[in-house]
Design goal:
about 750 residues, mainly alpha, two-stranded antiparallel ribbon, 11 helices, disordered N terminus, coiled coil
């Protein structure tokens, strides 16, 4: 641009006869004093010339772009309000040789062109263009810094960041799914617990009812004992009747009266026999019904239901074995399918319980029927007693008729035989009643056994379900962590590939801008070098501090491993308390050290960002510029520092993952120790303490995971900020390019207009 504006100096001058030729400025405009505005000349001002002077040639013509004058207005910011007397200043010598004077016949312009501010306006425009170019160069250097920082990033770090980003996305999705599945599982567990409580309540109700039925059965047994006592009394009465027969033989009564009485007795005996027959038929029907019902109950309870339960238990055991086999290869859909199967099995168990309740109700109804039958038998026995009392009275009346009784001895023997038959029938009824009672007791006992077995099966199912849920949660946690890490890594790799593509585009763009770097002059190089060297020394000191911190973290990790071994030894010796407290304190120290290291890393990143900003500001000040070699050395040093920091960050990230894995292995070992302690017949205090320590380690592991997630989120935010900053820089670069193109077009138009 200096060479371009140099063409405006040393223009051909007109000569007068009195003055010698000298180089002058060709004015391009005039500043008015009142309005402080600059007016561009489109032609020379018309003046009164003598007749002797030759006609003047039109040296100024309108510019190609008539709107170009707006760029040189007072509001455009290119010119200030400075007013100087340029006539007192010496003329500025041209930097190059003046343009060859083509038109020797041009008049002398020294008479009407004064030393106005046209030359300073050209210099100001040149200064403005130079400032814009330096600013553009600063942006280019800034882009180059970003490109090289991304180029020097290791390939494994790019892959890790891609995988971390994808794993982070999957982590969030899997956490949401896990929360939803945990809520569903909690609802299922609550429903199963409520169902278990309902079943236990029903079982308690059944037990109460069975106790009540036992009390009723005891009452029935007492009544049966009373019946047996009455039967014994009848037998004693019959014995007395035998004794009275001998006395009756000695009596002599009239046969007619005895015959009449015997006829009456025979009719009464016939009625009694009919009643006995009816009772016997009813008893037979009841016995048949009871036998059928008991057979049905036995078949239902002992065969079908037991077989169903055995079949269901076999199926459940097979399913449990299949589930345990599948737990090694986690499949969420299979787990949900197994949970649905367990729900179906629980529903089947509910149906079985309902069936058992229905059967129990049937047994209850049968017991009620038995009670009614026993009451009916009691009434029949009372009637029989009344008839026997009548017979006794008749026998007493027969004592007075011995003679008549002697003739009716044969009839008495018949009645005695009939009485024996009645007694045998009564004994048979009593025996059947005892059989029914024993069968009822056996059915009751079998029913209690079935209920106990059902309750045991339901409890085992609930335990299996709880264990499956715990295993499922563990598998989901492990699988979600692995899938989230893989997803974060894949996503990070994709983003880094996209950034590499953008970096390649920026390289192509910035390679075009390197040509302009040779045009800049080096000013205040020592000051810049001193500032950069001081910043680099500070960065190196921070890096050494970070390396020391990493070494200290490694020593802490080694101490943690030693403490872990000591903790295992103390767990074997059952000396857990002091060791676990020390372990928790060391873990807290390690966590605090890791947090301090992360803070230092963030501080280093901020220092690097400050260094980059300072370098960019130094480049954009327009007071100095750097040579290519020095800038490349500085960039190499900054890139090397960035690489070291990125490697340190990656190392700390891997150390954090290793720490989390050590915590997980420690938790697994503690869980194994807890299981061993639970299996061993020892006191419950040790078990509670081990569980408390396990809970503490789990809390610490959760804290470590949270810190790890926070660091991952921080790195992700930094990457997104870099991407947004790069996009903004792209936009600003495009704007700068467009501004440069406009300025170049304006300068070319000015040069063309001047040459014309």
């Amino acid at each position: 641009m200096v060479l371009g504006f140099g063409s405006l100096l040393g223009s051909p001058q007109g000569r007068s006869q009195a003055e010698a030729p000298r180089p002058e400025f060709t004015p391009i405009g005039k500043r008015s004093g009142s309005t402080s505005s600059f007016q561009v000349y489109h032609s020379y001002p018309q003046e009164q010339k003598t007749q002797t002077s030759p006609p003047r040639r039109k040296l100024f013509r309108p510019l190609a772009d008539s709107n170009l004058a707006a760029h040189y207005s007072h509001d455009s910011g290119l010119f200030d309000d400075t007013v100087e007397d340029f006539e007192k200043l010496s003329p500025i010598r041209p930097q190059r040789s003046p343009i060859a004077q083509r038109n020797r016949r041009s008049p002398d312009r020294h008479d009407f062109i004064t030393d106005d501010s046209g030359g300073i306006a050209a210099r100001q425009s040149e200064e403005t263009i130079k400032e814009l170019r330096s600013e553009n160069y600063g942006w280019k250097i800034k882009y180059k810094e970003l490109i090289r920082s991304l180029e020097n990033m290791p390939a494994h770090e790019r892959e890790v960041r891609k995988e971390n980003i994808e794993l982070k996305e999957k982590l969030l999705s899997s956490e949401n799914k896990l929360k939803e599945s945990q809520l569903e599982n909690e609802e299922i567990i609550q429903a199963l617990k409520s169902e278990r409580n309902e079943l236990t309540a029903k079982v308690s109700e059944l037990e109460d009812y069975m106790k009540h039925s036992e009390v009723e059965f005891d009452v029935v047994m007492k009544q049966n004992d009373e019946f047996q006592e009455r039967i014994h009394e009848l037998e004693a009465a019959i014995d007395t009747l035998h004794q009275t027969e001998a006395t009756i033989q000695q009596q002599s009564q009239s046969r007619e009266n005895t015959e009449l009485q015997l006829q009456k007795l025979s009719t009464e005996l016939d009625k009694q026999q009919e009643m006995n027959r009816l009772l016997a038929s009813k008893n037979e029907n009841l016995e048949m019904d009871l036998s059928e019902k008991t057979d049905n109950l036995k078949e239902l309870n002992n065969k079908a239901k037991i077989k169903d339960l055995e079949y269901e238990n076999a199926q459940l055991s097979e399913e449990i074995s299949r589930i345990r086999a599948k737990n090694s290869q986690y499949d969420p859909e299979a787990q949900h399918y197994e949970i649905d199967q367990l729900k179906q099995e629980n529903a089947q168990l509910k149906d079985n319980v309902k069936k058992y309740l229905n059967n129990f109700k049937e047994l209850k109804d049968k017991e009620v029927e038995h009670a009614h039958q026993i009451a009916f038998y009691e009434l029949e026995f009372e009637k029989a007693e009344k008839e026997n009392e009548k017979l006794r009275k008749e026998i007493k009346s027969l004592k007075a008729h011995e003679s008549e009784f002697a003739e009716s001895e044969v009839n008495n023997r018949e009645t005695h035989r009939k009485l024996k038959e009645v007694e045998r029938a009564n004994k048979e009824l009593i025996r059947k009643l005892e059989n029914l009672q024993s069968e009822h007791a056996a059915d009751k006992e079998q029913h209690y056994k079935e209920l106990a077995e059902l309750e045991r099966v339901s409890l085992s199912k609930e335990k299996d379900l709880a264990r499956f849920k715990a295993e499922l949660e563990n598998l989901q946690n492990s699988v979600s962590e692995k899938t989230e890490l893989r997803a974060d890594n894949v996503h990070l790799s994709n983003q880094l590939e996209a950034s590499w593509k953008e970096i390649a585009d920026l390289e192509n763009q910035l390679s075009e801008l390197r040509i302009t770097q040779n045009q800049l002059k080096s000013e205040k190089r020592t000051e810049v070098d001193y500032e950069i060297e001081s910043l680099i020394r500070k960065l190196k000191n921070d890096l050494t501090d970070l390396e020391r911190e990493n070494a200290r973290l490694k020593t802490l990790e080694i101490e943690n491993i030693k403490l872990k071994q000591q903790a295992d030894k103390f767990l074997d010796d059952r000396e857990l308390y002091s060791d676990n407290i020390e372990l928790s304190e060391r873990l807290k120290k390690a966590e605090s050290a890791r947090a301090a290291a992360e803070k230092k890393v963030s501080k280093m990143e901020l220092d690097i960002a400050d260094l980059q900003e300072i370098v960019e500001e130094l480049y954009t000040r327009n007071k100095f510029s750097l040579h290519d070699n020095e800038s490349t050395e500085l960039k190499k040093e900054t890139f090397q520092a960035d690489n070291n920091i990125s490697e340190k960050l990656q190392k700390e990230l891997t150390d954090a993952y290793d720490l989390v894995q050590t915590y997980e292995s420690k938790m697994k070992q503690l869980e194994k120790e807890v299981e061993k302690i639970k299996q061993s017949p020892e006191s419950s205090t040790i078990e509670q303490y081990v569980e408390f320590q396990l809970k503490l380690t789990r809390d610490e592991l959760e804290k470590a995971n949270a810190q790890l997630k926070s660091t991952e989120e921080k790195y992700k935010k930094e990457i997104t900020e870099l991407q947004t900053e790069k996009q903004n820089m792209d936009i600003e670069l495009l704007k700068a390019k467009s501004n440069n193109k406009d300025l170049n077009r304006q300068l070319e138009a000015l040069i063309k207009s001047y040459r014309q």
